[in-house]
Specification:
13 helices; six-stranded mixed β-sheet; Rossmann fold; 434 Repressor (Amino-terminal Domain); LacI/GalR-like_sensor; alpha/beta; 17% strand
């Protein structure tokens, strides 16, 4: 016979309602009691009926996770961390990819909001106005986009960009280019502002090239402009753009890092395996995924459960120096 919630309650020495809350609203159950109930349930092989629980609590125990481009190596570590964090809290995650298309992003949110308790938006391309309208339909937490009145998790890429500028300036570079990302990208805007400010402080001339497609094709397409600009260092929107740029420069007889130093953003796997290995701004993607899930579940629980007010969490970035940057040539 199938194990029931009453069997778990009897073996745990608690009321049936306590077992129910352990699975439907664990934050309302004493930690020691919750641990005991979960251990007993595991030992007995009890599995709660999600459909029945949804009817009782009004919660699906599903979350939506929408990313701009699942093929971009920046996103998989964030997705994996978010899924693991949600699983620990008895939630499932539906992952969707917008392919950088704001109309598709809006359509996905409108579809998912009927099936999930909340949505994580990662690097959204939607306008603030549309997000404001959609937030009335489902709780949101946004990653890498600052929005007034919404809980957000920001990876401080501006901090990393400032350190990157200091790095190339310290290597003697005085003419630098910035390859920006898509128009309207929060990350691109943060990198541009920080690079503009820091180059001005250090007396480095900055040439901005973009917007660019956030892929290796974007870097390839920008290679001619970089080669013609006379710069000796380039900071790119992400690692994919940087790797495309390196290939495009190589095709034009420009050596990296001998002639031009190149820096990416993300510390993705392709940059670790490339030749030369890519100097890059490290992004705390896994930490952001875990933090975003916790903040979304707190938002879903609401003020009655002691949820924190809407907030912005900023995670630090850093610079990982590899082979694609070197001291400027004296020739």
């Amino acid at each position: 016979m199938a194990v029931t919630i009453r069997d778990v309650a009897r073996a745990s020495g608690v009321h049936v309602s306590t077992v129910s809350r352990t699975f439907s609203a664990p934050h309302l159950v004493n930690a020691e009691t919750r641990t005991r109930v979960l251990a007993v349930a595991e030992g007995l092989g009890y599995r709660p009926n999600r459909a029945a629980r949804a009817l009782t609590t009004g919660r699906t125990h599903n979350l939506g996770l929408i990313v701009a481009d699942i093929a971009n190596p920046f996103f998989p570590p964030l997705i994996k961390a978010a899924q693991a964090q949600a699983r620990e809290r008895d939630y499932h995650v539906f992952v969707a990819d917008t392919d950088e298309d704001p109309l598709l992003e809006q359509e996905l949110i409108e579809t998912l909001c009927k099936q999930v308790d909340g949505v994580l938006l990662c690097s959204p391309r939607l306008s603030n106005r549309v997000i404001e309208r959609l937030r009335a339909q489902v709780p949101f937490v946004v990653v890498n986009r600052r929005l007034k009145g919404l809980t957000t998790v920001l990876m401080d890429v501006g901090q990393g960009a400032g350190v990157a500028v200091e790095h190339v300036a310290g290597l003697g570079h005085r003419r630098m280019a910035l390859l920006t990302g898509p128009a309207g990208s929060w990350t691109s805007g943060e990198i541009r502002q920080a690079a503009t400010d820091r180059t001005a402080e250090l007396g480095v001339e900055l040439t901005v090239i973009g917007p660019n497609e956030p892929t290796e094709h974007g870097g390839l397409a920008a290679a001619q402009a970089v080669a013609a600009s006379g710069v000796t260092a380039v900071l790119c929107y992400n690692d994919l753009v940087a790797l495309g740029l390196i290939e495009g420069l190589r095709e034009r007889g420009v050596d990296v890092p001998g002639d031009v130093s190149v820096i990416g953003v993300d510390d993705s796997l392709p940059g670790r395996l490339s030749r030369p290995k890519l100097t890059t701004i490290t992004m705390p993607t896994a930490a952001a995924g875990r933090m975003a899930v916790d903040l979304l579940l707190a938002t879903i629980a609401g003020p009655a459960a002691g949820a924190p007010p809407r907030t912005t969490v900023r995670l630090e970035t850093g610079l990982l120096i590899r082979e694609s940057t070197q001291r400027v040539s004296s020739s």
